[in-house]
Amino acid sequence: MGCSSSKAVRNSNESLAKASKVTAATSTSNGGAAGTHDDDFIEAVVCQELEIGENQMKQVELGEGKVLLVRQNGKLSAIGNKCSHYGAMLVTGALGEGRVRCPWHGACFNVETGDIEDFPGMDSLPCYRVTVGEAGEVKVRAKRTELATNKRTRVMAKRAAQDARTYVVIGGGPSGATCAETLRQEGFTGRIVMINKEPCLPYDRVKVSKTMDLNLEKVLLRTQQFYDENDIEVMLGTAVTKLDGATHELTLDNGYKIRYDKAYIATGSNPRRPPIEGASLGNVCVLRTAADAKQVNEQLAPEKRVVILGTSFIGLEAAAYCVNKVAKVTVIGRGAVPLKESFGDAIGQRVMELFEEKGVQFVMNSGIRRCIGAEGAVQQVELTDGTLLDADICIFGIGSTLYTEFLQGSGISLNRNGSINTDQYLESNLEGVYVGGDIANAPVHSNDGQQATIGHYPLAQYHGRVAALNMIGKATPLKAVPFFWTVLFGKSFRYCGYGQPDEVIIDGDLAALKFVAFYIGKGGRVIGMSSCQRDPVVAQFAEYSSQGKVLHKEDLTPNPLSWVPA
After folding, report:
1. Which residue, 176, 165, 166, 170, is CA-closest to 205?
2. The CATH classification of domain 490-556, taken from the options 3.30.390.30, 2.170.120.20, 3.40.50.300, 1.50.10.20
3. Of 76, 80, 291, 402, which residue is the least packed, with the fewest Cβ within 10 Å?
4. Within 10 Å of residue 11's Cβ, how many Cβ atoms?
């Protein structure tokens, strides 16, 4: 389904009819469908053809809405103007080969079909019919409802009674949800069962530490009605306790057994609790699920003192959320600065200063020896140097362990850390069993195809899509380019890449939190890039890397952004 343009020659009704026919047949906003009327559509001239050059994007107004025009390979196409994830304007994003990448979180959309090709997000974009008149006027025709919502759910196949195959998705996070949905989108007509140990439908998990007062119903990725209408069985509050690779049988904790033809495992992680005294006291919390967020949020009050162990994204996001709701927030970190592993020393130091400016206190190069409680609830924590801190709430944000214990004896090879090696198609050593998300030790395209275990939300969704395509026989190798982000006190930090750098080069004003950082690995290769208030440079680097291109340190001088398309 495309949205290509056509020349409408005024003095040839036959040519005009043919052109209109072609574009109408290849557009989601084609008109003429059963149950639609002309009033359901809007069509208007939006600009002149000369106003948009090759490999350019232009946002134009159409009625009460907006449309993104793109010209590539001499062809004009029109799609929704905003990312279907959180609504970023795509005209400010990165235009790649046949797709546009969101500047905020890296989601990618095909410029001709509007289909989502990389994540986060669940919905595709509408695409609209484009025609070009003899005088060069560009006309766009759009369905009013699509123009208003700026989202499109792809057509799903229906389950066929004669199709006896059963594909099981183990895990109800974003990866599992994307896999189940993609199976239907790509024409699978057998039985689909998605098993989720949480007692709720898949939801936007990144909200857990950022917005602890989240309304679960508002952050669901899909409703129960959606799954019912598309014949996707969902088992909630249910865990798989055993997988038998020889018999293709799953055993569930409710005693139920399911025979599968193929399976996708994306069970994610369990939050880590340190092996210290008092770690299981009341008011000692972790942050992984919506239930965890609710537990913390319900305890917050102006007189409370919060101690957070861990200076990763989870710990810092929790501190940022809590600091204006309680009397005191203290963050305990084992290193000298937070986020060193992700961003490096200099940026970590500036982030710590930002938090201190907002009233968050830090105790670095330390840890918690024990949690001290009374009547089952924490009251103090003792640090490794013997210091005592009053604590009404203690939050552990020190990483996670992979949720794969149930696969012992399954025939699937587990690494020491619980991860599972996959090939470039996400298949494990057990034929017909695919693995994705946090637990997958999978090839990373931007890291020369070397395997890595990466717990990023968008990557988990991407894994779900790729696994589904391969499960139904549409051979699709991974082309993963890790992309993640966080928002701290209103400042958005983005990162793309993977690996441990030998050097970090910062361009811009770090004090003002307006910078781009380049992470230099072996041989002078740029293995990652981060930014704050410099969009869309990280999205541009992600698209650059996805095309197999490589930057080196010498490419950054004299202009560190000379590689960015003009």
Report:
1. 176
2. 3.30.390.30
3. 291
4. 7
